[in-house]
Amino acid sequence: MIPKILVTGSGGQLGKCIKDLDEGLLNIQYVNSSELDITNKRQVECFFEKNKFDWCINCAAYTAVDKAESDYETAFKVNVQGAKNLAESCKEYRVKLVHVSTDFVFDGASNKPYKEVDDTNPIGAYGDTKLDGENEIAKILNEHFIIRTSWLYSEHGNNFLKTMLRLSRDRDQLGVVGDQIGTPTYAKDLAKAILHIIENDLSDYGIYHYSNNGVASWYDFAKAIFDITNSSIQLNNITTAQFPTPAKRPHFSVLDKTKTEITFKLEIPYWRDSLIAAIQNIKNE
Ligand SMILES: NC(=O)C1=CN([C@@H]2O[C@H](COP(=O)(O)OP(=O)(O)OC[C@H]3O[C@@H](n4cnc5c(N)ncnc54)[C@H](OP(=O)(O)O)[C@@H]3O)[C@@H](O)[C@H]2O)C=CC1
Ligand SMILES: Cc1cn([C@H]2C[C@H](O)[C@@H](COP(=O)(O)OP(=O)(O)O[C@H]3O[C@@H](C)C(=O)[C@@H](O)[C@H]3O)O2)c(=O)[nH]c1=O
């Protein structure tokens, strides 16, 4: 039987990437923030009571990293209370939950890729609320997949790729930090991995890491974008100290995907290959 799937926060970039992959063969209901506010417990309960689902993919989140520092309350409501509301309703109505989390649950002090079992220690409000959200889900619901990803970009919404493309049109030169290391992830690749879990009805519940393969600094990421698009902008490799932001970001947040690759039998694309594909998709729009 085809599973019935709910996608919350479907107006965001990950939600839209899932929709892009949906060829009508799956039974997916998409709800954006105005159709279902995950912070509204009563609304979530009523929604789950009225509609029967086998899976819920939670793409809803507060993702404004800098803004979260001065608006912790809203970030907490969405990333913690919202995650808790969904987990509670999933438990009550026997729905399996795929929830998305972040590399920003780590402090970045490591010098080797982070495994799922490694100690977390967020250094900013966004990462803090995302970690609390993970913990709420794990407390309430056994049937969950928490997928930590990093540096998401796509043709949809606001993201680093689209910011760089815009700045390359507006500016002659640009400074981008070279001392924050992680891995860019095409949201469409993540969307495929999530649908792979559901289509194969996997049940090895728990926390998993998924990013594209390889390692890059934000500077490397920007450099690749400008190389691929033949941009003539002058790109300067700067330090975090030269680009002050309200939120601290981890200096190193590469995720170890061994558990994901083995358990899900997934081949994960290298970040530069996916970037080329994403830029091509933007050009074709
Ligand atoms: N973006 C990134 O670089 C990374 C993201 N992640 C995680 O991946 C997931 C998807 O991120 P991404 O698609 O980029 O995020 P987006 O910011 O693009 O989308 C988030 C969506 O959540 C919706 N939303 C916010 N509040 C609520 C609410 N109360 N009820 C329902 N929906 C709500 C937003 O709707 P509206 O706009 O209407 O408020 C928006 O459409 C998130 O869990 C994020 O933490 C992890 C690592 C990197
Ligand atoms: C725009 C810009 C950013 N930067 C730096 C700031 C920052 O350190 C880094 C990335 O900036 P952004 O604000 O685009 O991305 P940021 O919001 O930090 O991205 C994070 O978002 C959340 C949601 C996550 O979960 C993380 O995995 C990560 O993707 O690049 C520059 O150095 N120069 C620039 O011109």
Protein architecture, described:
This is dTDP-4-dehydrorhamnose reductase. Residues 4-282 form the RmlD-like substrate binding domain. Its EC number is 1.1.1.133. It catalyses: dTDP-beta-L-rhamnose + NADP(+) = dTDP-4-dehydro-beta-L-rhamnose + NADPH + H(+). Pathway: Carbohydrate biosynthesis; dTDP-L-rhamnose biosynthesis. There is one protein chain. The two termini are 35 Å apart. It contains 10 helices and 12 strands. Helix 8 packs across helix 10 (271-283). Strands 2-1-3-4-5-10 form a 6-stranded parallel beta sheet, with helices on both faces. A two-stranded parallel sheet has the order 6-9. Strands 7-12 form a two-stranded parallel ribbon. The chain has a domain at 4-157 and 186-212 and 253-269: Rossmann fold (3-Layer(aba) Sandwich). The protein is globular and about 55 Å long. Strand 4, helix 5 (125-140) and strand 5 (144-149) form a beta-alpha-beta unit. With 285 residues, the chain is an alpha/beta fold. Bound molecules: NADPH dihydro-nicotinamide-adenine-dinucleotide phosphate and dtdp-4-keto-L-rhamnose. NADPH dihydro-nicotinamide-adenine-dinucleotide phosphate is lined by residues 8-9, 11-14, 32-33, 37-39, 59-63, 78, 82, 100, 102, 130, 149-152, 157.
